[in-house]
């Protein structure tokens, strides 16, 4: 939209003082000819823009033409420009809006604070997405639509604890992005529940108004659910070697337990992963991968797996099952 582009040009010039037409064209993804037409439009509207000729020339604003945001300290200005580089804004379709908003804030900052804010944006980066983290969901748009329209949702949902798929009709409070993973906070039959968006096998908006508990907001429910998870017993940290031919399956089945990795191991054809389980007993699920997974630590988990493996070996030993007729 031309009006938005004109405003972006004005804000960029307020921030940088002078920019070439080519630089403006690159930043705004248009041609230099379009920038010159926009320059003429700004001038005709009474904006004090002018051109500087020569190799170091460009487009500039008359000195003093800017608007300050009063009341912001230097630290507050820097805090605004610690760039969140995860996919959260892009997932919500707000990636371009974030860039535009930051340009507007930068242009409106008091001049003494602009340098520190600009340096912070180039020196500090926060990426909340875990390595090999769970992928985003193509259904996030459907979740958004229900949340903003206050409609109910019907989910076919795969649970991480047992991989079973169940169907629920839920009443959403909102969406939360934690460590790069999207969660739906909702009531199910009046009780607060948390659903990972990427575990939804399907999601359908139900044309019925949401039935939230009166006076309860997203922050309240999220705090309750967060405490419920934080108060669980400490997780068991497991280091394991995974044979490369079963690695993809393990990452798919145990994505909820994956903490870090995979990274190449010293043993050829194997990778090392870090997992977190609720208990040593839960680590026994790795026996499903047979000799394709070796737990290195902790020792108590190795002992538990060895005990189960011994029991399985005895069960399937050479002796025929009870009731099998002799030959």
Fold blueprint:
Elements: H1 2-16, E1 18-19, H2 21-28, H3 32-44, E2 49-52, E3 58-61, H4 74-80, E4 83-84, H5 88-91, H6 95-108, H7 111-123, E5 125-126, H8 140-149, E6 151-158, E7 165-178, E8 181-188, E9 191-196, E10 200-209, H9 218-230, E11 236-243, H10 244-253, E12 258-264, E13 270-277, H11 280-283, E14 293-297, H12 299-315
Parallel strand pairs: 4-5
Antiparallel strand pairs: 1-3, 2-3, 6-7, 6-10, 7-8, 8-9, 11-13, 11-14, 12-13
Helix pairs in contact: 1-3, 1-6, 2-3, 4-7
Descriptive report:
By secondary structure, the protein is α+β, with helices and mostly antiparallel strands. The protein folds into three domains: about 1-125, Arc Repressor Mutant, subunit A (Orthogonal Bundle), CATH 1.10.10; about 140-230, SH3 type barrels; about 235-315, Alpha-Beta Plaits. Helix content is about 40%, strand content about 25%. The protein has twelve helices and 14 strands. The protein has helices at about 1-15, 20-30, 30-45, 75-80, 90, 95-110, 110-125, 140-150, 220-230, 245-255, 280-285, 300-315; strands at about 20, 50, 60, 85, 125, 150-160, 165-180, 180-190, 190-195, 200-210, 235-245, 260-265, 270-275, 295. Strands 9-8-7-6-10 form a five-stranded antiparallel beta sheet. The chain is elongated, with a radius of gyration of 28 Å. Residues about 130-140 have low confidence and may be disordered.
């Amino acid at each position: 939209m031309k009006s938005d582009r004109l405003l972006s040009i004005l804000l960029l010039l307020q921030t940088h003082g002078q920019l070439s037409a080519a630089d403006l064209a690159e930043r705004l993804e248009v041609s230099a000819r379009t920038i010159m037409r926009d320059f003429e439009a700004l001038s005709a509207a009474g904006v004090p823009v002018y051109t500087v000729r020569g190799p170091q020339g460009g487009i500039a604003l008359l000195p003093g033409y800017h608007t300050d945001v009063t009341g912001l300290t230097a630290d507050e200005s820097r805090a605004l420009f610690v760039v969140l580089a995860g996919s959260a804004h892009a997932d919500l379709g707000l990636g371009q809006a974030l860039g535009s908003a930051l340009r507007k804030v930068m242009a409106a900052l008091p001049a003494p604070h602009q340098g520190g804010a600009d340096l912070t944006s180039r020196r500090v980066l926060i990426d909340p997405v875990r390595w090999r983290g769970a992928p985003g969901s193509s259904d996030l748009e459907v979740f958004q639509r229900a949340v903003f329209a206050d409609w109910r949702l019907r989910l076919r949902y795969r649970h991480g604890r047992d991989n079973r798929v169940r169907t629920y009709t839920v009443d959403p409070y909102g969406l939360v992005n934690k460590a790069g993973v999207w969660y739906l906070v909702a009531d199910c039959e009046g009780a607060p529940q948390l659903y990972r968006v990427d575990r939804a096998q399907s999601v359908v908006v139900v044309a019925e108004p949401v039935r939230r508990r009166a006076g309860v907001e997203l922050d309240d429910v999220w705090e309750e659910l967060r405490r419920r998870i934080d108060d669980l017993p400490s997780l068991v940290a497991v280091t394991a070697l995974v044979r490369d031919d079963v690695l993809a399956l393990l990452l798919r089945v145990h994505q909820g337990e994956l903490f870090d990795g995979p990274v190449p191991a010293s043993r050829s054809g194997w990778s090392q992963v870090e997992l977190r389980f609720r208990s040593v007993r839960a680590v026994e699920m790795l026996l499903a991968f047979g000799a394709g997974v070796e737990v290195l630590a902790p020792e108590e988990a190795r002992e538990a797996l060895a005990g189960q493996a011994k029991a399985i070996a005895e069960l399937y030993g050479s002796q025929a099952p009870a009731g099998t007729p002799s030959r």
